Amino acid sequence: MRILRLWAPSLIGDHTLCYIHTNRGGNTCINDVEIPVKYARAGESLDGEEYAGAMTIVLPPEAEIDDGGFLAVGENNETLLRWHSDSSSFKVCTAGFLGVSERAEIWSPIRTAVLTVSDKGSQGQRVDTAGPELERLAFAQGCVTEERKIVPDDKEQICETVREWAGKGINLILTTGGTGLSPRDNTPEALLSVADKTVPGFGEMMRIETLKYTPRSFLTRSVAVVKDRSLVIAFPGSKRGAGQCFEAITGGLRHAVETLTGSASECGNNHHGK
Q1: What's the pLDDT score for residue 270?
Q2: Structural domains of the chain in order of their starting residue, each with its CATH number
Q3: Are strands 17-22 and 96-99 parallel, antiparallel or unpaired?
Q4: Which residues make Cβ contacts (< 8 Å) with residue 210, sequence separation at least 6?
Q5: CA angle, corner 36, sides to 32 and 40, nearest 5?
Q6: Which of 90, 69, 82, 63 is closest to 2 using CA atoms?
Q7: Smallest Cα–Cα separation from 110: which of 229, 249, 268, 22?
Q8: Where does the pLDDT of residue 219 fall: very low under 50, low under 70, confident under 90, or very high at 90 and above?
Q9: Does the pLDDT at position 77 exceed 50?
Q10: How far does Cα 171 stand from its chain's mean position?
Q11: What is the pLDDT of residues 194-203, one digit of tens each?
C-alpha cells in the first residue's frame, strides 16, 4: 500500500513530503506547525469541515484502520502513527517523514506483556530498567503492553506467569533476566518446560547480531518458545543487552506473531520490521 496524497488546505494544500512529530505539549505537528492528522480513502470527498484544518493522509480505497491501530510508514517502518477514533486523528508514536508514494502498512496492535526476572528487583533492591526498555522498543513495533510484572529467579513463578498470560490471550510475552550462567539463572529452563514449540531463530539472531557489540554475547542463553498462541522471548537482564537483542529480532517479530495468531499474509512475503 502507498500513500496517495497528503492534503492540508491550511498549510498550502498538497504536500509531497513533510515531517510529522510532536511538540513539547505532546500535540501532533507537521513541519513544526501544530495540526491534527487524519486519514481518508481515495475517492472520498475532502471538502468537509473536518478536513479543513487538518493534514489528511489519503490511502487506497481498501484501507481500514480500527481504533488503536497503527499506520507504519517507510520502507523500514520508520514512522509510526496510531489512530484514535475518539478524536478521529493520529497520534505520533515514532516521528518521521511522510511522503506521497511512500510505502505504508496498517498494523493491528500486538497484545504484549513484559516479565522481569530478578531476585533483587522483586525485593525492591534494584530498579528495573530492562523491562521498560523492552516495552518502549516493542511499542515502536506496534506492541501494546497490557501486563507487566517482576518475579524472582524462581522457575515455578516464571512458568505460572507465562501460563497465566498465555491463557489471557496475550500475543507476545517478553521476559528479561535469568539468561546467564549463574546458578539462579533459569529463565530458559522455565520457558522450555512450558513450551509447545521452540523458535530457535530468535536466540540465534540475538547472538549473531550482538557480537557486533561484545565478543561475549554468545554466552547469552536467550530462547523463544510458543505457549498456546503466545510467542514468548527471553532477553538478557541488562537494559543495554535487552535493547540490542530486541533490535536484532525486529525483522521477524510481527510476522511471527501474526503467523501464530492466524492473521499473517503469505509466509513468503517480507512485510515487517527493519
Answers
A1: 40
A2: 5-107 (2.40.33), 110-261 (3.40.980.10)
A3: antiparallel
A4: 217, 220, 241, 244, 245, 248
A5: 125
A6: 63
A7: 229
A8: confident
A9: yes
A10: 12
A11: 999 999 999 9
